[in-house]
Give the backbone structure.
Amino acid sequence: MNEFSEQPPKMSDEELLWLVRHKVRRAILLAVGEEGRIGATALKQKLGISTGSLYYNLRQMSQLITQDERKSYRLTEDGMRIFKALTAQSGSGQNVVTPSSKAAELFSALFFPLWLFSPIYESRVVASVLGPLAVFVLVFVLLAGRYELFLLNASPMTPVNHPLFAVKLVTTYVAGLAVINVFSFLFSGRFRTFGAVVKEFRGSGGVKGLLAETGKLTSAMAVAFLPLGLVPGIAVIDRVNQSSFLSNLFVRDTLLILSQTITIFLISAVVAYVKKMKWQNSMGVALTFFYLSHLVNYFKPLPG
């Protein structure tokens, strides 16, 4: 994982202060500072946190923690400065996170599943396999159920128009990328000059780095869209069993809302992990995509 070894854009003192206020990030910083160099597995075991939480917070702390050639984590110059300040102000025993309750861990894992997307960003192989596989599964279910996907709305498509189906699906992914990137920038509140943006672009690997990041984001988004295949999947079961479960509009709309709700939470987790945002802001980005989807579908002309 090379992203921690790259020189990130310079953070302000206010941003650094925000980072170490979080108890998990503070514990990670203190643990790395104490050990000097430490691997991901040892760090996770030392703190008693999940893999998803560890990698999510490490991405947030790229200004303070980096990786060496052996993939061990160590403090940067800024990280060492913050570490010394924290150890000077705090007594010992501050670097262990108090384990949360099983109920809290389960709630976090279900509604903010960082563990689902951390493998995509930590392994190029996983990203290159999981993303296309998720797209394939969703397309198969949609076509088998004779549904189309446009933004976050799955609707019946009879007869199936394959070119139009493909156009709407591609539009969905392109729009998702655009909304996530644009509104993540707006919700972050970190407005920068053009020169700072260019410097960050070059520091992240230029065009090659941008394409790699876009590929990972697309793979993560493909996984987040999978719940939208719930209603089309039930439509396939209905047709095979010659039942009429979805003929009840209340049931169909309820299932559609459920699938969209799950997708919103997954998109929020993607945004938080990828864009290094607090969950409140990432949820705002996900809800923006949801409302824009409904707005576009509301004004979409009816067939025929």
Observations:
- The radius of gyration is 22 Å.
- The chain has two domains: 13-99, 107-298.
- Confidence is low (pLDDT under 50) at residues 1-8, 92-99.
- Residues 107-298 form one domain.
